[in-house]
Amino acid sequence: MDFIRNFPFFSIWMPMVAGPVSSVLSGKKARLLNWTVVVASGLMSVATLVYVLSTGESFTYTMGAFPAPFGNEIRVGILEAVTASFFCLIMVLSLVGGHRFTKVDIPEEKQNLFYIMINLLLSSLLALIYTNDMFTGYVFIEINTISACGLIMIRGWGRNLLAAIKYMIMSLLGSGLVLISLSILYGITGHLLMEQMHESIVEIVQKGTYTEPLTVAVGLFCVGIAIKSALFPFHAWLPDAYGYSTCASSAILSSLVSKGYIFLLIKFFYRVIGAEIIHTIQVDDVLFVFGIAGMIFGSVSAIQQTDVSRMIAFSSVAQIGYIYMGFGLNTEAGIIASIFHILAHAAGKSLLFVSLNGLTQGTWENANYRLLRGSAYRNRIAGIGFAVGSLSMVGIPLLAGFTSKVYFAQAAFGAGSKVKMLVTLIALAISTILNAMYFIGQVINIYTPIENAEKKRYAAGASMWFAALAFIVANLVLGMGSQPIFRWIERGLSMFS
Amino acid sequence: MPEELLHNYLSVVSMILFGIGFGNLLLQKNLIRKIIGLNIMDTAVYLFLASMGYIAGRTAPIDDGSQTAAQYINPIPSGLVLTGIVVSVSVTALMLALTIRLYRRYHTLDIDEITVMVRAEHNE
């Protein structure tokens, strides 16, 4: 069974090879190759998860001939394997659900380019999840950015190009900050592997030397990742980038791309720096404030939108705020709630984007809310999917969003200070009301029948039925059967240090 | 304090350059100037890394069997610089390609003007 130890490396390596190979294939063959690779990576991640659960301990996989502290490593624990399996699942469902729109939106001769980007994105996401080396993390952050930029611009409209270049500019600012932060950290610790960095940092803090450079480096890293994952004041690039790309792109971008960066941030906090030191230099308080601000202002901006795709995109800003608020609590319960919310948000948001594209079939792909009135009767499964996704985002019981809000509320009671507890609970309440205002409003809107409307039906197609139903099941599983996942996250997190 | 700054002048210079590059990438309206800012920013980081790995009086770590490890500078930052250069070349190429496509379509390099034109195109 020790052969399974190679699987994480294979699941990164396969899409990385499949990407360049796709450039010489036709669109259809590239698609088949890509789907095979995504499914295979997913199965390998599940096998890895089963293996890690059975052994009960994490393992490191040395890349190349050099052992630590010189070589490059992959580290696999329960948390990594759960996240990787889940990301592969969301990716394959988004691709299947958006398949019909991919065929229409992207010219035949450019289809293989789309699948190159998907392959590279998968490879970089898995590498960000598994890597044990901060500089490798930086390199894959850039690969992730480049492939995400390709997914944004693949439709080729003017506003896609503009959104792509805005995304690139903001992302490059972020990765510049990450790079300088890693250089400073390398300068004061002399290592790039996470465990060795952590040992040096503990030593530095005990001796009291280099505390300023350490604070600066942690701050720069956080700002860099915050820009790239669209935390509240840095979210200007997000609505255009997510709102106007093709269906599969929007679903994957909103549910996975920013989560890869956030996962690296979790590893940085809990494996490289350590929760106590994060608390000593008060980075958690800063993230808490911005997270709360994001929860409120993301939703306020979403309410003002007339275009439903932009509305869903702005709601991502609010959901990212939730995740950062969990980091800000800086307790074990808070971070578990954040990780659970990463999964819950991915399942809900990709469902929303896939079903929204089904709803806009009768409106020339215009997602203005007036045109969407009554659209749920034109495409039944898309209507149901949109309703389930919206209710999950609002936090209706039985669905994923509710469970993660419960976990956040529980975490709030365990927060160190009373102020944080009160602020978290109040922000959760306000944000839920704001979410309900726009999501429930849209659900009512799409189910409002128009009088004298032509009774035209749009066939959803087997692919959309399959994807939407699978997403709904994923939301229900996360909502009702969250206990095992919760325990896996808990065990995975305890393996981190 | 001034002596420390003077002693670590390479770090100081690279931080100033980083700031210049960052500011240009963030604030310039012209896309080409933004890309130049990006390259200044990345180059500043390479200067910082290279200056960290350099140890006065030692030579480049090219192993010909005649010297010991104690006579070489630290090779890892140089390796990081090489990796970083590859990354920054690829993102620069991507940014330039995007800029060319936008220029062919809107005949300007000013990102604010392009934004106005895109809005007009989609009747917002």
Mean pLDDT of chain B: 89
Helix content of chain A: over 70%
User: Which percent bin holds the helix content of chain B?
Assistant: over 70%
Number of domains of chain B: 1
> How many strand elements of chain B?
0
Query: How are the strands of the biggest sheet of chain A laid out side by side?
Result: 1-2
Q: Distance between the terminal alpha carbons of chain A, to the nearest Å?
A: 25 Å
- Low-confidence runs of chain B (pLDDT<50, min 5 residues)? none
Number of domains of chain A: 1
Oligomer: heterodimer
Rg of chain A over CA atoms, rounded to whole Å, is 22 Å
Strand-residue proportion of chain B: under 5%
Instruction: Return the CATH class of chain B.
Output: Mainly Alpha
CATH-defined fold name of chain B: Helix Hairpins
Q: What string gives the helices and strands of chain B in order?
A: HHHHH
Summarize model confidence as the mean pLDDT of chain A. 89
What does this protein look like?
The complex is a heterodimer of chains A (497) and B (124). Chain A is mainly α. Chain A has one domain (2-494). Chain A has helices spanning 7-22, 27-55, 78-97, 99-105, 111-130, 134-153, 158-189, 194-207, 211-228, 238-243, 247-273, 275-280, 283-304, 308-329, 332-359, 380-394, 400-413, 418-446, 462-480, 482-494, and strands spanning 59-63, 72-76. In chain A, a hairpin with an 8-residue loop joins β1 and β2 (72-76). In chain A, α1 (7-22) packs antiparallel against α2. Chain A is globular. The two termini of chain A are 25 Å apart. The relative contact order of chain A is 0.10. The model of chain A has no long low-confidence stretch (mean pLDDT 89). With 124 residues, chain B is mostly helical. Chain B has a single domain (2-59, 68-121), classed as Helix Hairpins (Orthogonal Bundle). In chain B, 73% of the residues lie in helices and 0% in strands. Chain B contains 5 helices and no strands. Chain B has helices spanning 2-7, 9-27, 31-53, 75-106, 111-121. In chain B, α2 packs antiparallel against α3 and α3 (31-53) packs antiparallel against α4 (75-106). The model of chain B has no long low-confidence stretch (mean pLDDT 89). The chains are: A mainly alpha (497), B mainly alpha (124). Chain A binds chain B through residues 135, 138-139, 142, 145-146, 149, 153, 158-159, 161-162, 164-166, 168-169, 172-173, 176-177, 179-180, 183, 186-187, 192, and chain B through 18, 21-22, 25-26, 31, 34, 38, 41-42, 44-45, 48-49, 52, 76-77, 80, 83-84, 87, 90-91, 94-95, 98-99, 101-102, 105-106, 111, 114-115, 117-118, 121-122.
